[in-house]
């Protein structure tokens, strides 16, 4: 009998709180991850710290680059898209996305 190879479920945890030690959303995400690791011990888990890292805003160079074919982009436009391209790739690779956001 043929069975497909086990596919690892990739988890991406997006932390959006600027707080680190007193963040309730981080605690909830950590609780989820702890339970997930018990159930799916071999799942790779990636973290993206949106509340701590400096995430650039969309600007004129980003907009120009986003609507231009890759081969026509200037170096400035390529650089403007680099971080958002990285974030989008992380989202595409994830099977499970955990959004840990403050409730304001």
Automatic annotation (TrEMBL):
It comes from the Bacteria. It is an enzyme of class 1 (oxidoreductase). One of its GO terms (molecular function) is oxidoreductase activity. Residues 10-102 form the Flavodoxin-like fold domain. Pfam families: Flavodoxin_2. It comes from Myroides odoratus (Flavobacterium odoratum). The keyword Oxidoreductase applies. This is FMN-dependent NADH-azoreductase 1. Its EC number is 1.7.-.-. Keywords: Oxidoreductase. The lineage of its organism: Bacteria, Pseudomonadati, Bacteroidota, Flavobacteriia, Flavobacteriales.
């Amino acid at each position: 009998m043929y069975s497909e190879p086990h596919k690892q479920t990739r988890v991406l945890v997006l932390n959006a709180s600027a707080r680190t030690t007193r963040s309730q959303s981080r605690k909830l995400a950590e609780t989820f991850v702890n339970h997930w690791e018990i159930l799916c011990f071999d799942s790779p888990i990636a973290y993206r710290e949106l509340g701590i890292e400096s995430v650039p805003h969309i600007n004129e160079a980003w907009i120009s680059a986003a609507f231009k074919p890759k081969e026509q982009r200037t170096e400035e436009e390529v650089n403007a898209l680099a971080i958002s391209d990285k974030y989008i790739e992380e989202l595409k690779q994830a099977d499970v996305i955990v959004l840990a956001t403050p409730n304001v």
